[in-house]
Amino acid sequence: MQFDIVIVGAGHGGAQAAVALRQNKFEGSIAVIGDEPELPYERPPLSKEYFQGEKTFERIMIRPAAFWAERNVEMLLNRRVVSVDPEAHSVTTADGATIGYGQLIWATGGSPRKIPCAGNDLTGVHTVRTRADADRMTAELDGLTQAVVIGGGYIGLEAAAVLAKFGKKVVLLEALDRVLARVAGEDLSRFYEAEHRAHGVEVRLGAAIDSIEGDGKVSGVRMKDGEVIPAQMVIVGIGIIPAVEPLIAAGAEGGNGVAVDHQCRTSLPNIFAIGDCALHSNGFADDMPIRLESVQNANDQATLVAKTIMGQELAYDAVPWFWSNQYDLKLQTVGLSTGHDATVLRGDPANRSFSVIYLKEGRVIALDCVNATRDYVQGRKLVVDRLSPDPAKLADAEMLLKELI
% helix / strand / coil in the chain, to the nearest 5? Predict the structure, then answer.
């Protein structure tokens, strides 16, 4: 098989790359190689609306089957790429098939990080990355009385919220001294800890796990102090490992992801990388090389690559944004708070509608907005334009943020 464009990865980035190529009038052949049997679908609902049963799989599909057929995008599903030959311009899949490309777009995301302890492979221990993961968890809900969630990031908190809404007893274990420690300031962390506790979730911070116990199937989590927390389900949400081994083995620069330039080109000829696995210099992180695990990043990088292939001279400079739904709370984040040296609290967390504004050397670098969509929409420009408003005015919830632009 030979295609003008081969896209490895059928998640948000891979799907958007194919869509954007056709939108930008690319007329050559396109193939998308995905390691799951399903057509591209949205990942964020897996720990929220899909797991909760609020959305069917059809509702989280990025496009229906007819869309891909009408646009002559070949979907090569249930295939995993195991090697890349940059000189021959080909990839090889696990079943031994060789697929040639003119240009390659690597959009593989990553695999969930396993907790490094005994028992991590027992039945009933889950990660949340694929539809199959969510379906397995759903199938176990009927016999479930208590679950342990390991990891206080967004995946863990969202899964804990769904289980609590189902009336299950939930213990959430976070190794650090607060939840969301890697992505948010203390105000937001303490707010979400209080919310989860108010909904019956037992949140344990500084938690040290020894092992996961069970005879074939999980029965509990043993802590370092010897305590065993009973559980019929364990959900692990402690990050991902970027899926870039074949590219690195082929000589691409990288490590924690594959290194790309401002056009998302790797160091290998005619090979781009986008999304969770792309290690790129980001202007909203003071040009530090970072990976961004977000739908926004995957989609924007995919669109940039499509335009680059079509001859447009562009550089990636999209402002990062994220969201999380837990209980009746909608968190919307714009910018990157890493490296902030001051925060401004806007509104009262007790009212369950407020924003945390992050500053670095007086400049607004990010906002976390909880049930405060207006702040999120108006505050975006403060981040994009790198403005330095008066902190007292930022804190005045009666003043619209757009008045400070």
Answer: 30, 35, 40
